[in-house]
UniProtKB/TrEMBL annotation:
UniProt name for this protein: VCBS repeat-containing protein
Upper taxonomic lineage: Bacteria, Thermotogati, Deinococcota, Deinococci, Deinococcales
Species, as recorded: Deinococcus radiodurans (strain ATCC 13939 / DSM 20539 / JCM 16871 / CCUG 27074 / LMG 4051 / NBRC 15346 / NCIMB 9279 / VKM B-1422 / R1)
Signal in keyword set: yes
Domain of life according to the entry: Bacteria
Signal peptide bounds: 1-27
Keywords: Signal
Length: 217
């Protein structure tokens, strides 16, 4: 996901639900709901040390001290039937997606975002697709968060769908409003997304504003 401008508004921590639906085919399911709170993913200290060691060459670990590994997510991300695990590495204000298979890194991508999630195979190619989330900070405590559905089938990165401003919290600004999305998918060779768009003031909270569908190619 390419970098974008920082909005001139402050940001709260966004609450995002990322659910794993690997192996479920055909049934309509939720792939994202930015109204809800996430379930944090625990990565052991030993695994964190290993991932950081494998990601950065000896003597080339960045000097900043905020290196951490989050969002340990199993799936088959680059080929059908693979037993892989995706990790999100955060270091020096940047992030990197690292995918392991058989004890070694088979795919690495930089500038991914702040969170990842396995959304299952939504286009029938036998490979699990991913949700990427990226949030942007302004002044105070307002937040803008973008979302992308992507595939790594064949080891190649491809964006299936981008949703800019999937979540907005402007409660610290004069406008004082919130915005969120609940996105469901009907899997298939041409997946159909249903986007429920919620918005409202910061006291009453976001309410359903509109619903639309998008067919992916």
């Amino acid at each position: 996901m390419p970098p974008r401008k920082v909005y001139p508004a402050a940001m709260k921590k966004w609450m995002v639900l990322v659910a794993c639906f690997s192996g479920l085919a055909g049934a309509s399911r939720v792939v994202m709901d930015t109204r809800l709170s996430p379930q944090p993913t625990y990565v052991s200290d030993a695994q964190t040390t290993r991932v950081l060691r494998d990601t950065f060459a000896p003597g080339n670990v960045p000097g900043c001290r905020d290196a951490r590994v989050t969002d340990e997510t199993p799936g088959a991300f680059t080929r059908r039937g693979a037993r892989q695990t995706a990790y999100l590495v955060h270091v020096c204000g940047n992030s990197r997606l690292v995918i392991y298979e058989g004890g070694r890194i088979v795919k690495s991508l930089s500038n991914i975002g702040d969170a990842i999630g396995n959304i299952g195979d939504i286009n029938g190619d036998g490979v699990d697709d991913l949700l990427f989330l990226a949030k942007f900070y302004g002044h105070g405590s307002n937040t803008v968060q973008d979302a992308s559905l992507v595939t790594l089938a064949g080891g190649k990165f491809r964006t299936l769908f981008d949703l800019p401003e999937a979540a907005v919290d402007e409660c610290s600004s004069a406008n004082a409003y919130t915005l969120a999305y609940r996105v469901t998918v009907q899997p298939g060779t041409r997946p159909v997304l249903t986007l429920n768009h919620y918005q409202g003031d910061c006291v009453a909270g976001a309410r359903l504003f509109e619903t639309k569908t998008v067919t992916l190619h």
